[in-house]
Design a protein that fits this description.
Low-confidence stretches: none
Mean pLDDT: 95
Helix content: under 10%
Number of strands: 11
Number of helices: 0
Radius of gyration: 13 Å
Order of helices and strands: EEEEEEEEEEE
Distance between the termini: 40 Å
Strand content: over 45%
Structural class: mainly beta
Oligomer: single chain
Length: 125
């Protein structure tokens, strides 16, 4: 079992920044790929970013590629999502997720085995 707890969401103005954190427990943290997803009201959950076990490889959705940065600290069992230049369309509940497998579908929700409860991000104009 893996437990994931997100934090850091909130209300921010357009152009502002937020840093989301996700604390993991239950299994050796370096044994799984980590991802961030988001879900806006009335929309499907979508991929935001992912990071490999070692942190050496990162992947981003095109919509956030130049604005968001994913990072992990395996010593602290933490994964982060730094979000800059936020836009109203970034408003959503953000989830971190853990993938224990070795497939290449890091952008697919069904590849992930464990999910956090989510944290709300609201970008106001």
């Amino acid at each position: 079992q893996v437990q994931l707890v997100e934090s850091g969401g909130g209300l921010v103005q357009v152009g502002g920044s937020l840093r989301l954190s996700c604390a993991a427990s239950g299994r050796p943290f370096s044994s799984y790929t980590m991802g961030w997803f988001r879900q806006a009201p009335g929309k499907e959950r979508e991929f935001v970013a992912a990071i490999s076990r070692s942190g050496g490889n990162t992947y981003y959705a095109d919509s956030v590629k130049t604005r968001f940065t994913i990072a992990r600290d395996n010593a602290k069992n933490m994964v982060y999502l730094q979000m800059n230049s936020l836009k109203p369309e970034d408003t959503a509940v953000y989830y971190c997720a853990a993938d224990l497998g070795y497939g290449s579908g890091y952008q697919l929700t069904y590849e992930y085995d464990y999910w956090g409860q989510g944290t709300q991000v609201t970008v106001s104009s």
